Structures are given as C-alpha cells and as structure tokens.
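Supplementary Text 2. Reproducibility record for the structural model of the 920-residue chain.

All settings were left at their defaults, and a single model was retained for analysis rather than an ensemble. We include the record here because the model underlies the residue-level annotations in Supplementary Table 4.
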Amino acid sequence: MRITPKKRLLTVISVLAILILLSAWMIHASTDKIDFSTQVKPIINKNCITCHGGVRAKGGFSLLFRDEALAKTKDSNYAIVPGDADASEMIKRLTSKDPEERMPYQHKPLPKEDIEILRKWIDQGAQWGEHWAYVPLKPVEVPQPKTFFGLFSSKSGWAQNEIDHFIEDKFKEAKLKPSPQADKATLLRRVSLDIIGMQPSESIAQKFLNSNDPNAYNELVDSLLSSKHFGEKWASMWLDLARYADTKGYERDDSRSIWRYRDWLIDAYNNDMPYDSFLIKQIAGDLLKDPTDDDYIATAFHRNTMTNDEGGTDNEEFRTSAVLDRVNTTWDAIMGTTFACVQCHSHPYDPFKHEDYYKFMAFFNDTRDEDTEADYPLLRTYDNDTLKQDLATVVGWIKQNVSADKAKEVYTFLKTWQPSYNSLTCDSFTNSELNDTKWTSFRNHAICRLKNVDLNNRDHLIFRYQGWVAGGVWQIHLDSAKGEVIASTSLPKTKDWQITETNLKPSTGVHNLIFTYENNNLKKPVDAGALLDWLYFTQEFPGKDKQDYADIKDLYWKVLRANVPTTPIMMDDPPDMHRASYVFERGNWLVKGDKVTPAVPASLHPLPKNAPQNRLGLALWLTSKQNPLTARTMVNRVWEQLFGNGLAETLEDLGTQGVPPTHMELLNYLSYQFMNDDQWSMKALIKKIVTSATYKQDSKITPELQQKDPENKYYARASRVRLSSEQVRDQSLCISGLISTKMHGPGVMPYQPKGIWLSPWNGADWVQSKGEDQYRRAIYTYWKRSSAYPSMLTFDGVSREVCTARRIRTNTPLQALTTLNDSAFIDAARNFAYRMQENSKDIKTQISKGFTLATYRQINDKSLNALMNLYNNALAQFRNNDEKICEMTGGVSNHTNAETAALIVVANAMLNLDEVVTKN
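Retained model, structure tokens:
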C-alpha cells in the first residue's frame, strides 16, 4: 500500500505528539517522588534539627540519622512510620491544634505545603537521601546543544571545551547569552595574575600581544604554567589552609623555623606533583617506605599548629589542642566539611556521630610532638657537604657491619633525635620542677619520675642537658627513690645544651624511672643545678668488635652534636610509647569516655583494603577515588581562585548547610576528570578552565546581565575580582620594576612602620631586610600570627592561627589609604615614575607609557587628561617647595626635582586605580 506524503506527515506529527506527552508524563512522574536532600532535609534543618538533632534529641527523637528517626521515642511511640504518615506521631504533632502538643513548639506552625511534603515522604517510605557532596563521583555526560524540541544534537558556536557546554546548557534557565571574548591585553593580565599571581616577563607578554597565531593564547598559558612563579602563586593559596606562619602563636608567638615547608609547597606545585601524592606526603610522608628529607618536610603541614611557650601552661592541654586542630584542618582544607562541632556532639546537620571525631582524632593522637619549646620532633638538615658525607659513612658502616635495620634506626636518630622522652613529661616533683613548664630542672636532693619506660634491650642512655653548677650527681632508680640504681653519672657545668651518654644496668620490662640529683655546691634551697631536655634509651653503639669502630663512633658523635638547621616534622610514637585515645565527653579533654582506635566515619567509604590503621592509611583514604569530597573540594577551590567564587560558594562547607553548587554537574564532571583523566594534575585542571570560552569572556556588565544575573552565577560574563593581598603587593613591585625573582629561603622583612611589632617578653624586633630581599614576593614575607604584615591584612590576608578555607573580600577606605600612603607603595611609585621617564622627556608620553606598563592597554584621552590634570596640580604644589620634593622623591638624588615628584604622585594614583587593583 502506498503511503501518501500527507499520511507520512500525519504519522510523524502523531509520533512527535506521543513522544512529547510521554516526556511530560515522565517529568511529572519523576517530580512526584519526594527527594529527601532537596525537599525534606531543608525543612528539617530549618524547623526541627535544633531540638531533634545532634546537639539535642528532645523526647528521645532525633532526625539526624534514619535509624534514630525510626526508633521509638521516650513515650514509646514511633515518630515516623514508613509508609503510613497518618500513624506517624511526627505528622500528628505538626498538625495538632493544641499549642502544647503542636510542633515546632512555641513557634509558627509549618506551612501546609511543607507538611504535605513531609506527609508524602513518609507515605513513600521515609527514605533518607545522600547529600550531593557525599555521593561518590561517577562519569558525567557532557551536555550538548539540542534542536527541534530537544530531539536532535547540534554544534555550539561558542563552546571551546567541555566546561563551556555545561555553562551554556544553564544559560537557557535565565535566557542568557555569553559575553564576547575579552581583548588580548585583558586576557594577558587576567590569566597571568591567575596562573603566576603577577605580571609575566616582558618577552612572554610581547610575544602574545604581537602574535596573530590563533594558538597564541594556549601558548601563553603553557608558558605561564611552566614558569617558576606558578608555584609561588598557588602555594600562597595553600598557606592559608596549612595555617602557615613563621611564629608559634599564642601569647609569646616566638619564631619558628618552618620555611622549608613553604619552599616544599612551591616546588611541589612547580613540579605539578599529583594532588594525591601532594596530600599523602603532607599527611604521612614520614610513614612512607624510606622517606626522604622532602617527605619529612612535607609533614610540617600539620606542624604549623600553634605551640604555647608561656610559662605555667599545661603542655598536655596544648598538645591535645594541636591534635584537635589537625583533625579540623584535615576536614576543612582537604574535604571542605565542617567537622569541628563533632568534637562536642554529633553533627547537627551532616551524618557524623560524636564518636566519629575521636576515632578520626586517633590517627593524629600518637605523634611525638608534645608542645615543647624546641618544637620536637625536628628534621636536622645537613647542608654542609662534610656532615652529609660523615652521616653517609656512619650509616653505611653500620649497614655493612651490623644490619640494615640498625642502620635505619641510627639514621633516624641522627636526623631527628627521635624517639626520645621529653623531660616535660616528668612528674611527682620533690626539690625539682618543670622550669617554665618546658624542661625538668634539679635542685639539691631532687626527686622526680618518668613514667612507663620500656627497658627491654636498652643498656645505654643518650640525653641532652644543661649544667648550671658543677658537682651534680644524677642517678636513675627503678620504680622508687630507694629502688635499684641502674645509672649514675655526673652532670658537669656546661656553657649551653650538651648531648652526652651514660650506661644503663640491663633490665627488662616497663618501669617508672625515678630520677634523683645531689649537688652540695648548691647553697640555697631554691637554686637549680641542672636542666634536662630529652632522653633516648637505646643500646651501646653497635659493632664494637669491627674494624674502624672507634673512628666511626667519633663520627657518629660529631654528626649527633652538630649544630644544624631544623624543621618541625611529624613522627609517630614507637609501639612502646603508644598513646591511647578516648572520646572526650562533651568535648572536654579532661573527661575521658570510651577508648577508641583509629577509624573513619561509617557514613563515608571505608579505609582502602590493606591500608594500615595509621596516618598513611588515612592519607590513602583521603585520596581514594571512592572519597566523594577530596576532588570536589580542590576543584571548587581552584574555580574560586580563577572566578572569585566557587561553583559551591561555601568552600569551607560542602555539607547540607553550605550553599549548593550553581553548576553541580560541572563540578562533578571536573572532579571526576581531575582524579581520572587528569591523574590529579593541578596544571591540567587549571589549563582546562583558563582555556574555556567561559573564562575568556569580557567582564563588562550590561543592563540585561545586571537584571538577570547580578552575582554572575550563570557565568555569562567574566568576573571582576579585587586582587588578593599578595597580588596587590607583588603587582606594585612588578609595575615599578622593583620585584626580586629570588626564590626560597627564610622569611624576609620588607618595610614596616616602627612600633607595630611589639614582643616585650623577648625584645624581638622587625629589622627591615636589605637589598633585593625587601622587594621579594609577598609569599616570602615573615608572617607573625599576632602581628601579621599590616598592609596585607588590610587587603584581607589572614593571621593563620587556624585553617582558613576562604578569604572574605572586603572593600574599605583603609585599602585606598594603604596603597596611597604606605611607604612601601610610595617606594614602588617612585621607581614606577623613574621607569616612565626612561627614554622620554614628554610628560604625556611618560604617563601613557606608565598606563600601558600597569594595564597592557593604551590609555584613552579621558584618562590621559585626568592624569595630566593630576600631574599639573601636583607640579604647581611642588614648585618652590624643596622640602616636599625631597619627601616625595625620598631624599636628594638625580630625581630630586618638581617634575619627578609630580610624576610620582601620578604613578601612585595609577597603582591605586580600580582597574589595577582589580582583575577584569
């Protein structure tokens, strides 16, 4: 039978109509199902959880976990009966007319719409849903443009990579179209600030600006990614998370030499260390097989915790505080989740129970640090080639003549002085005390105790002490002051700390050691004769019957006593020094509850198979591809660095109380790609984002965009973001030509007004660095927690006492006052003016050149006229006023004239322009 064209057309129309109706029915059917995470959870969190959650469970009813919600309440009723809303006490209470019965108690009744959602949800089985952030990542299909009622795929005329397809797909919600691509000068400045945090070299800039190659932008991105300054920019971001500072915090806030960790970060980013390795080394580098010095230094991530050097403090309290900080930082920095409140009670909103916190804490509770003044344990760095060779000789000799295990033990001790007992753990003092709560000190007839020392296979003691008065005799007794003496030695007077040794009478088992000290040269009862630092119980130096023994032992002591640079690191207790962990009742460290062992929250994925139950196992869990949070958190953070806001705005909280992502599928797509296709490469992730059409858009805002998307959540334009505190400083140094490209090393002290740094207890002072050190990048500025560099704080830098997951940008008059008046910026303006004067005496040419140096753009007539007026007004004031000229130019020199002084004013104004302190 022949089908006519008319019939064929009717058939096609009928099929399309059926498809449209079927699609509408499917949409209706899918929306009729109540979704816990998006519909029910918000109602519970807003109205119920404060009384029926992790903090409180009034009436024995908690809505935090499904098993709790379905359990009997105190009056033996079931608040929720899955499948039967009418039989559920919860619905009865929500709809009750009795004000004493109705919930929420003494609050407005829930809207009928909310009650209906809850009713339907219970009738449908009261299923709990997983919050989006806790769902494991899976491959995400990239959306494609559709035509003809969404039935056929088409090709985008705008998208340049997969990111753009996700962004473009959301445009239709607000009926938006993308903005045009920004001009080359804007793109150059934007991508340079984002990738290296500063202006690029002149050669890189001019190559891009003068190129007509369609691939020039991608080549520019590759050049910036390979720059040594890349690591400096991205390490700056991580330092806030690591709460990095050059001081210890608290009242004394004394210096801490931990800058090698900052340098490790810079090198890790420059080498594009995979993010999983980057995390594993920082969490557990010391537990890797045959860890290198760099692996140890990486663990300083968790030695940035504060140490309280104030006298009279409880060292165990502040050791515990440091451990808790490590738990909170791990969750804030790496998993973007608020976990700190679980210290006191189960999480009010997210699926974490009170005991989860302390099981997680147990991973960190067995580390060697104990709030010591010296910040033990420390990695000793042998920069001297002779010492390096001596160390290798000693370790090699022991490996050859004794055993590989003994060689490893000796190597660890020479590098770290660990595992040792810190004298601040002594107690039961008679005529002795903890001096300034840091070291055990002995008076005449002193007695004190060191608890639970394993003496099995220990016949030797190496210890560090300081002798103040000659004639002291120190004895070690087993279990009591009248117990067996296992060691007796003199403690001669020393000029400083001294490391020495004494033999131990062989013993077995674990004992309390009682220390006694006699010194008849001490005439006053309050006078102390000696101070103990640490004690290392070991065996006599091995290989006594081997050739060259005496020479090797001498080398051993030379290396051990060498005064070398150190860095605080993480190390675990050996089994005989193991520290047990307990739940703290209501978060109080003094009230111990149930004993716990290391474990991760049951609501998330388990530890990987065969993973050790220590920090290394934890690191493998954090970087497991089953972990739903780690990749999402970093991708969201990178997006925030490039666009000003994360796809999920609350970087610090991806949980149920955080702001949901504007583009959830894009976040999941990038996160999955980051782990898999990109193999955790930060540079690959950044390149993917900055080469997207989304990133390259112009930032100009139209009336339509202002009305439809004022906060730019649809990304129909590029964001305008005020530069970070580090970038404001670095950019002024670049524009002025003062910037030093010197990398690494201890923190430097650029100009700072007198009197800001007050450390009366020890007289520490801010001593301005000389030469190029005062013009180094902001990342190298010495960071004191209690008095951080003021101009950087003004631009929203943070003190870094705790992990800061997100800086909140502010806009205050103090910022303009800083860039216009701070001597460091005036200094930069001077040199900027000198750059403008090079090769030209025409003032208009000089100002035009300066504007281009600052923005890469040619100045327009309106701006030029405004700056010329500023110049002429300043020139009129400087003429015949030598004192003001000298003040502006910084003294008498070849530049001490009215014209230069006026140009410095213009240069200073340029550095303060909105388009200079803003990334467009």
